Amino acid sequence: MQKELKGKVISLAIKKVVKALVQEFDLTPTMRLIQVGEDPASSFYVHSILSAASNLGCKDELISLPKTASEQDLLSAIQAANADSNVHGIMLQKPLPKTMNDSLINMSIDPDKDIDALHPLNLGKILMQEDGFLPNTSAAVYYTLKYYDIDPAGKNVVILGRSNVVGKPLANMLLWKKPYANATVTVCHSRTRNLKEICQKASILIAAIGKPNFVTPDMIKDDAILIDVGINESIQPDGRSIYIGDIDYDACYEKALAITPVPGGIGRITTSLLYLNLVKASLIAKKINKNVDEYIDLKFSENHKK
User: What is the pLDDT of residues 189-230, one digit of tens each?
Assistant: First the structure.
């Protein structure tokens, strides 16, 4: 196993799968991306999503609502996308204004177009181990384990963070009865007692709490595998803005068996998985029952042989 678990190779492999599925089934997967306001960080992510579409044989439509938009304005935009048969996937850029009811908005998205897996039905499918959309960041962690042949079966896996978009769905994915799952999972959060001692028992530690450099060497055991989901902006003394993870990469590097970098790790994979979900949605719209994991496994295998 290599020390640094880079995300670029995984992202490229998944994008090849997206292209292959688009060509094989003559698809034109179309995403409607809805953004409220113009938060700079959100706008940067939106731009990165839009710029990837044409190279993958997909189409994107951006609906930009002003930051003064009401909850009903957003619900109307989502309903229009639900009703449009030419739109296969809906991506709702988060965070939303605090005046909006997140749960209500999530439930308004057609589950068959919910390519960010926000709807309770899609989250429930994860719990029941049924085929469906996976939250992109959680899926990025799962596919990282699969690509680098890191089998968590029977191992102690600790997840720092219990969010609905990463911690909770990822915990359930790692409990699946299938390859690269079957783990013994502990989910930690702000009320967890003896956090340091729990982390020290983890063979695989996954940090997703949004606290820069939170995980330090004294919190991990020798040869632990560290997966960093955090992306935190840090302003340097010279005024430069850089991004760092929830794990102190430099300090933990020597002690770890393997570690994902930030940037260039988990975050690098998420956009490709958004388009993989879009292809799934397009297949659903055409009533084509196809397990895309077969394509993923084949492509990962090809990359390992190089």
Answer: 999 999 999 999 999 999 999 999 999 999 999 999 999 999
Rounded CA gap, 100 and 105, in Å? 8
Q: Determine how many CB atoms are found less than 10 A away from the CB of residue 185.
A: 19
Tokens standing for residue 81: 């996308």
Give the DSSP per-residue string, 149-172. T---TTSEEEEE---TTTHHHHHH
pTM tops 0.90: yes
Closest-CA residue to 166 (of 189, 148, 182, 149): 189
Task: Report whether 217 contacts 251 (CB < 8 A).
Answer: yes
Domain extents in the chain = 27-116+269-293, 136-262
CATH of the domain spanning 136-262: 3.40.50.720
| Residue whose token pair is 């397990």 | 291
Q: Is the peptide bond before 120 cis (omega within 30 degrees of 0)?
A: no
Closest alpha carbon to 80 in 95, 63, 60: 63
Q: How far apart are CA 197 and CA 280, in angstroms?
A: 41
**Same CATH fold, 136-262 and 27-116+269-293?**
yes
Comparing CA positions, the residue from 270, 272, 266, 136 lying closest to residue 207 is 266
What CATH architecture is 27-116+269-293? 3-Layer(aba) Sandwich (3.40)
| CB within 8 Å of 41: residues ≥ 6 apart | 233
Closest CA to 116 of 139, 98, 96: 139
